[in-house]
Every structure is written in C-alpha cells, then in structure tokens.
Design goal:
Helix content is 35%, strand content 32%. It contains three helices and nine strands, in the order ββαβαββαββββ. It folds into two domains: 61 residues, Ribosomal protein L9, N-terminal domain (Ribosomal Protein L9, domain 1); 80 residues, Ribosomal Protein L9, domain 2. The radius of gyration is 21 Å and the shape is elongated. It starts with a strand and ends with a strand. Strands 4-9-8-6 form a four-stranded mixed beta sheet. Strands 2-1-3 form a three-stranded antiparallel beta sheet, covered by helices on one side. It has a two-stranded antiparallel ribbon with strand order 5-7.
Length: 148
Amino acid sequence: MKIILRQNVDTLGAIGEIVNVKAGYARNYLIPREMAYVASDGAIRALETEKKQYDVKMSKAKAHADVVAGQLAELQISIPMQVGEEGRLFGSVTAPMIAQELELRGYHVDRRLIIIEEPIKTLGIFDVKVKLHPEVIATLKIWVIGQE
C-alpha cells in the first residue's frame, strides 16, 4: 500500500516521502496516529500545505533551541554525590538528576534528551550533551562534587 508520510518516521523516511508499506501497518498504526495519508492526489496537495506549516514551525523551534543552547553552554551545574574510597561514587549521575537540576534553574529539558556517553561514576568535571532539536545539540558542564 502506498502512503505519504506526514511525520518523520525513523524506520520509513522523512516527511513528504511516498513509501510502500504493508496494508495492515498503514491501516492499524500509521494512519490512526496521523503519521501518514493514503497516497492520492488530494492527499499530496494537503501534504504540501502541511509541509509548509511544518517548515515554519521547525524553523521557529530551531531558533529557540539555538538560544537555549547558547544559555546552556554558559551554565555549569554542580551535583553533590556520596563518595566512597578513592573518589568513587555510590551509584552514578543519571539523566533524571541532571534534568532536575536544570528544572531548578528554569530550563525544562526532558530526561530522554540528555545524552550521557559514558556513566559518570567519579568526581570531576564532565561534558554532557542535550539534544534540544534534531539539528541542535548543546553541551552542558557538570561538576560532580562530594556531598558533605
């Protein structure tokens, strides 16, 4: 069954692409969730209008994400943790901890958008990436300090 994607779908393609999928997948998953249209002339015209609106919306979101990325680049967060022998932490610094600290400073960032490449299990200064937009990734400085 030929469909036109209304959203970016990781496994299929980008917005506006015409793809061929199984009929059940289209009828039961993509179309009810408004992720796709059945490919027809009217649907193609409707998608062109939607795509223009989507481009305007994404450009505004990217501009906002650029501003927030600049602010996060200047921000440094201290996270106090319990420390054992040799500077090793009891547990590790997690994305929800970082999201909570950002929330206290007035930045609402979903914990799933915080990218910790390697587990933080020692004291020190670490760079953590925050994906604010598909094209904008901010770097945040995290200071892990011993809790008193």
